Amino acid sequence: MDVAEVVSALDIAEASLVVAPSLRDAPFKSEKIRVPPEPFTVEAEDGFSVKGFSWRRPEACPSARPVVIINPATSVLCRYYFRFADFLFEHGFDVVTFDYRGIGQSRPATLRGFDAGWIDWGRFDFEAVLHHAERSFPGQPIDVVAHSIGGFLVGLAKSNHLIRRIFTMGAQYAYRGDYARDANLRMLAKWHVFMPLITMVFGYFPGKTLGWLEDTPKGVVRDWVFSRKRFEDTWRGRASARYSDKDALVQQFAAVTAPTLALSISDDEFGTVPAVERLLAYFSGSPRTHLRISPESIDEQAIGHFGFFNSRFERKLWQVPLEWLKSGRLPANCPGVLIKPGGCSDDHASI
Predict the structure, then answer these.
(1) Per-residue pLDDT for 6 more than 60?
(2) How many folded domains does the chain comprise?
(3) Where do the H-state alpha helices sit in 137-216?
């Protein structure tokens, strides 16, 4: 059986499912990048080559200019964030973005038998890029913009104490109990039934052919499918031997001291309030702010899980992370409401 046959077999099933936010919905139109990024390759601690791109000013680097690392969502190409990276560069930041192992530029010759998972993406790949930023942009503050699982990975890196400020968008670790209630059954069918079944057939998830995601290593699929309330409970059985010191993983999150602004969007089926709050609770050493924005508050019909990084939101939404990364504050007249720890909104919060 090949991928085309699987796609055909799923046609009827997919017709009955409203497709969850995915790259099919995301803006992959070619846009002219004002500053061409430079490719780089860095070797992770385990010897794997992680590849990405950087935006850097050629003049002597003042220590006051920060460098921003962009952590992608699960199985999303780093190129997807190029327009946002260009925006940050135009506003005074140097920028680094990269592909996790198994994805895009960092994909091996074959994904069959390639068992990389989320822990590897954080403990090895993001860690390597953090050190790359420290070496290549000496003396410059390091900030992080993280989308979806990218926010989770921040907590896994041993050098996360190097980070000055963090902005996350829809960051969570895909615990199925936190999916939006009105979409829960549909998302369970798609991501927790169809995705693992297809992965079992091919030895990896052929997401690019299906139009759901990029092709994805089987280890990432396993981590997603079996994600638990407490992320450290995800790796059981044979997987527990691979990540035996799970207490150390949890403690690593507490090493983050950078102030964090977590943005959630009301029509994001993944980044619900419980999901975002669940992840934020692990960053106990970080001053945390949770801002929730609805499409209606900015006169839009939809934003979703991927829409934020569409350049059409440059004027309406991108000023939020820009001001946070510059000053650690929310911009004046910021849309949305602040969410108190525990998931309650504070409609009277001064934002």
Answers:
(1) no
(2) 1
(3) 149-154, 184-189, 195-202, 207-210
